[in-house]
Design the sequence.
């Protein structure tokens, strides 16, 4: 792996969520100090949402100018607006309803009921392209931080092993027949994920240990999609001890 790929191991999933929340707040503050705004891509999943809850619970959240944060999603379950299983619904409940975001800068992926997933993917790609054009002059990466969970099968966002979406070069793709329910989803493609300055893979639980080991050993994105993601500046594997259990010894030093 390239030298900008790092591993940090925390004691358990609770400490992991708190530590990622602290890191995220700092990164948003730094991005805003540098370029006046910040851009983050959220993930669903248990650790992703626990991290957002930890941001909401942190007094340091007040250091972020939430009205100058663009919020994107890495993937979405193609369900009706407000469905409790939508990553958007969960992120709003965990964080976005509790901080003064500018709704015009919150970019949920399209929901079921307004066209096909393919149309939704195209609309999201167009929104993203408009954003990139509007911010070109800043020289900043499209996304400052992109959060990803990893499934036991090595999936990231809604890019599942051996599925055609992995080879799709479009920035946003429609996904059908996902092995994890619901089967229909919209996802950023690998190309858009690679447009992030930093990609953080946030992973907890022993069921993820083999996927983490294989991704770190560069098993290839067809088999283990997580092995194909890179940030421009940094790719950070933020793990709890259980998810790190199968990594080689040099990575086994967990923080207290
Ligand atoms: O839509 C989804 O199903 C999630 O976005 C998914 O990609 C998730 O991030 C991983 O499966 C890890 O989930 P856990 O953190 O719950 O293990």
Sequence:
């Amino acid at each position: 792996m390239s030298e900008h790929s790092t591993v940090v191991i925390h004691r358990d999933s609770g400490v992991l969520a708190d530590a990622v929340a602290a890191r995220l707040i700092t990164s948003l503050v730094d991005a805003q100090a540098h370029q006046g705004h910040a851009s983050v891509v959220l993930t669903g999943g248990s650790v992703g949402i626990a991290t957002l809850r930890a941001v909401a619970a942190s007094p340091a959240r007040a250091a972020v100018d939430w009205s100058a944060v663009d919020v994107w999603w890495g993937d979405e379950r193609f369900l009706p607006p407000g469905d409790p299983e939508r990553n958007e619904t969960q992120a709003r409940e965990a964080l976005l309803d509790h901080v003064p975001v500018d709704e015009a800068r919150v970019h949920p992926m399209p929901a079921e009921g307004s066209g096909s997933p393919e149309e939704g993917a195209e609309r999201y790609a167009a929104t993203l392209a408009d954003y990139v054009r509007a911010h070109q002059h800043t020289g900043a990466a499209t996304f400052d931080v992109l959060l990803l969970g990893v499934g036991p099968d090595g999936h990231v966002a809604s890019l599942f092993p051996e599925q055609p979406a992995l080879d799709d070069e479009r920035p946003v793709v429609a996904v059908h027949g996902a092995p994890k329910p619901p089967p229909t989803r919209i996802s950023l493609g690998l190309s858009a994920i690679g447009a992030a300055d930093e990609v953080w893979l946030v992973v907890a639980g022993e069921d993820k240990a083999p996927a983490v080991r294989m991704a770190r050993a560069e098993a290839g994105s067809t088999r283990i999609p997580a092995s194909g993601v890179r940030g421009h500046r940094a790719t950070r594997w933020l793990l709890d001890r259980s998810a790190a259990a199968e990594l080689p010894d040099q990575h086994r030093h967990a923080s207290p």
